[in-house]
Specification:
alpha/beta, 7-stranded mixed beta sheet, 6 helices
């Protein structure tokens, strides 16, 4: 999830059902493992790279004032733009809204259109992000997706998703936050069957140990996707559907 606003290093997630003590203990233990990657993620990228991205999209240089921490960095934003230029998608789905929503929406506008549906668990943030997009002339289908009890091998909670497109050309996974469970984003595989042949998945923060476990399981369970880990301060996992 990303935001225009300044945020703390590790925001505490207060929405959704109460989690069992075992899951809370797991998250604390993995936090001790992941702290070097969390520190690295504080850096949002070079200012010159951000300005180049904004110039490419025709946005003012103050459109993305605060990147890094638990927000998308410039590297990941560039990967999204490249994916849209390559795919020219009709349907883009995003888990976790904010600065990435602005970049996705603007990139779609410049590359043949397409519809963006963005989900986030914070209702007020969904509203404020939608208003922010409108101020830049960008459109997206903003959807509130509260966190509900959903017991799986990944976590005990997941988004309550509604109005998901039947076919998805590009799936961007930038939420929920790892502070709920280090493997929680693995549950996004619920949407993999909707991804069309030639479609793509982009997972942010893929260099973290928790996301590396997620990638390992996805490679095992989804042989019709080719998964590639790209470098960067936080890492990006690219999944391409082969058939």
């Amino acid at each position: 999830m990303t935001s225009r606003e300044k945020t703390g290093f590790l925001p505490l997630e207060t929405t959704g059902p109460d989690r069992p003590l075992s899951e809370k203990a797991l998250t604390i233990a993995w936090g001790a493992i992941q702290w070097p990657w969390l520190l690295r993620s504080l850096w949002g990228g070079k200012l010159a790279d951000k300005h180049a991205l904004l110039d490419k999209l025709g946005l003012p240089h103050d459109a993305l004032p605060h990147l890094g921490s638990w927000k998308a960095d410039t590297w990941f934003l560039w990967r999204m733009v490249e994916a849209i230029e390559k795919l020219r998608p009709r349907e883009v789905v995003e888990l976790g809204c904010g600065a990435s929503t602005l970049v996705l929406g603007k990139a779609l506008e410049l590359n043949g259109g397409g519809r963006l549906t963005s989900f986030d668990q914070h209702a007020d943030f969904v509203v404020s992000t939608g208003q922010w997009l409108e101020s830049h002339g960008v459109q997206a289908n903003m959807r509130h997706a509260p966190l509900v009890e959903d017991r799986s091998e990944w976590s005990h909670t997941w988004y309550e998703l509604g109005s998901v497109p039947r076919e998805i050309d590009l799936l961007v996974i930038d939420g929920p936050p790892w502070s709920l469970n280090p493997f929680i984003r693995g549950r996004a595989e619920l949407l993999f069957d909707r991804i069309v042949p030639g479609g793509m998945i982009l997972l942010d923060d893929a260099a973290r140990p928790g996301e590396r476990v997620v990638a390992q399981r996805w490679r095992r369970d989804w042989p019709d996707f080719r998964f590639t880990l790209l470098p960067g301060a936080k890492g990006t996992l690219v999944g391409e559907r082969l058939r």
